[in-house]
Each structure stands twice: as C-alpha cells, then as structure tokens.
Amino acid sequence: MTSNRPPILEVRGLRKSFGHLEVLRGIDLEVLPQELVFIIGPSGSGKSTLLRCCNRLEEPTGGSISIDGVDLMARSTDINAMRRRIGMVFQSFNLYPHMSALGNVALALRRVLGRKRTEAEALALAALARVGLAEKANAYPAELSGGQQQRVAIARALALGPKIMLFDEPTSALDPELVGSVLKVMRELKAGGMTMLVVSHEMRFARDAADRVIFMDHGLIVEEGTPEQIFSGPREVRTQAFIAEIAR
Amino acid sequence: MQALLQQFFDFAIMARALPLLLTGLGQTLVLCLVVIPLGLIGGLLVALTSLARSRAVRWSAAAAIDFFRAIPPLVLLIFVYAGLPFAGIRLSPLAAVAIAFLLNNSSYYGEIYRAGIESVGHGQWDAARSTGLKARQALIYVVLPQAVRNVLPDLISNTVEVVKLTSLASVVALPELLYSADMARSITFNTSPIVLAAGIYLVMLWPIVRLVSRLERRIAS
Question: How distant, in Å, are the alpha carbons of A2, B28, B141, B173 from that of B33?
C-alpha cells in the first residue's frame, strides 16, 4: 500500500437523509489502488447506504464522491458511463432470473459497452472462468446454488473491467458451507490487484485479506485501523461492544 | 319441449345461418387483430406513465385510468361513434370501435402491466443500473420480461374479455359475429343463430381459458 498514489475512491463530507432520518452524517473515506477496505458496524449504521452512494444508486444529500479522479456528482459526469467502472455485488445476488449465467454477464457488455453478441459472449465466458463457473455458462440462476449465483454476480460486475468493486454483504444470504467459495473468489480478486470496498462481517476473511477495517455507527465512521487494531484492540467503547457482540 | 328445441336448437336454421355467421366471425377476428395489439401497446404506455417520477404525471394517469375503467365501454363506444360527429369528427364503425377500445382496454391492460412491473423486486433495477444500463434499457431487458411473465395469465384473461367485448361493435352496425347472428335471428324469427354464435365463441375461447388455468397453476407451484 503506497500512499503517494491518488485514491481510486474519495468520499468527502458525504451526507444522506431519507426524509427526516439522517443515515449518513458526514463520511470521509479514501480507498487507494489495490486496497481492500472492510466496513463493519451494527445494522442501521449506514454501511449499505454508504456503499450505494458510491455509485449513486442512492442519491447523496450532500458531500462529494470521486472515482479515479472523476467527480461523480458533477452535472457533466455521465453516471452510466461511470457505473461500469464501479462493480457492485449485492447481498441477494440479484441475478436476472430469465437469463442464463452467460446472458447475465453479457447483457451490459452488449448494451453498455456496445460489444457484438459473439464478442460479448466470449468476454462473458472469460469472466465466468475467472470465478470458476465457465461450465455453468448456460445454467439459469434457479439451477445454481447461492454460492454459484453470487459468483456469477461477481463475474457480471468484473466483466465490465471495473476500477473498484463494491460488495454489499456478499455472503450474508449464503448457507455457511457456500461462503468459502465466494470468499475464495474475492481473495483471488484481491491477489489480482482489484480495489475493493466490502461491507461484511466475515471477520476471519477481514483479518487475513483486508488492508483496513472501518467501524461505522449512526452514520459516522467511529474508528478505523488495521484488522489487528480493530478486532484485537479497538479504542472506542462502541467498537469494543460491537466486536464483542459479533465475536460471540 | 318441442317448441323450446325448435326455438333454440333448430339445426336447419343454424346450417342456413352458418355462412353469414362465418363472415361475422371474420369481422370479429379482424376487430381482435386491431383492438388487442392497440390495447397491449396502449396499456404499456399507461403503465409506464403511472410509474413516472413526476407526481403530476402519475396523478393524471391514475385519473384517466379510473375514468375509463368506471365508464361502461358501451357508453364510451356510443359517445365516440355518435357524439364525436358533432365535433366534426366522423368515424367509420371500425375506427370508432378501435378508439373506444383503446381508451377502455389501455386502462385494464395498464393496471395489469403495472402490477407486473411492481412484482419485480427492486434488486433487479439496482443490479441492472449498477452495470451502467440506462433506466429504459433496464426496463426493456431486465424488468419487463419478468413482469410480463409474472402477469401472463392476467394478460391472457383480459384478452379473452376483450374478445368477448368486441360484440359491442354490433351497436355501431359493424357486422361482427353477434351482429350477424342477430341479423339471422331477426330474419328467421328463431333464436338458434344466437345459440350457434355462442357455440362459436365457446369453441374459440375455451382453449384459451384452459391455458390460463394451466399457466396459473404453473406459476403458483
């Protein structure tokens, strides 16, 4: 991790309210190239909202976000062009049930990048191979296990060549025996130099893969540090209470 | 008993009326080919309008849907056919039926599409938009195919209703199936042609009704 390179993701003073409810109350965050940053925190702390603001699936109420130096909030920024640079993986996979695994991955390659069908399918197949599912290319989501579905979802984001990938609790909806296959793919992405921002409670994964862990509560970043610092010696009382809670 | 059979099931009269009724059936099919696609397309536009971001647009769509669902289609048809000439718009029977049915059917089809679109989870939009698809593309490639599949039985059921409603065209002297049968009835002073027309509707629609039941069972399981 070298600090002289400009960050891939830079968030400044980010605020988000839903009506009177203030979910994010001024978030500052940087993610450097090839860094894997973990966000933990109790439910309702704003983790998912923060992630969803990073590609403007949620419209921030205030503050700034830039990806790879491009101001995401600027009027002149084409958000759809930026979104393919920002891969997103969801808790509930959100695969398109009426399309095969290959179709899921190829759709945006064709309709966003404008690739021809054969070209898009070749790229999609390569992305599926990267998550170990080339042989499932023609399977429909309903025919795949949760772990396989999530890996297809990762391939769908990966195929567009993102600069950063956002993971919103990618393993929370999985049966315990399927979690490993998804984490393995995420480890490989990390090893391949992908920049990642991950909301998850997989502590063991965080310990050996994360460069940094951020603890959020009530819409603010309470504490951040290395996994060792956060999990073994948190300074803040709220962090201590939360770590004790999830360690049980 | 004999009189009853003669009045309703006189096969000799049915046979004589059959050519006329088949011509009427042809007109009914032409009507369906005009009215059903118009309703399906109009309904989709209505559904998209009722899901628009602007509140004013949504409310005017809702008001129009309510209005055209509350007003009897027969009244609407007579108004279009007999009322619009006073505004200087003179329509052929077919055009009048097409317009009245477009207004009526779009509301019904629209509500079905809307239910279908709303049945598709928001995660599908999120996933599609997160890959850079525009809202229109997400709708066309991701949401609509699932929405239509979810409400296919309702779309087909409504289409059966529309086919039956085409008999309303008889009031504007469009010689469709019921109009032809009624003409045969008034010539022969016998109700058998009407029974024959009912039989033709039944043969035409029963397989579709069966299909709907099967689709509903498949979706439920």
Answer: 68, 9, 26, 19
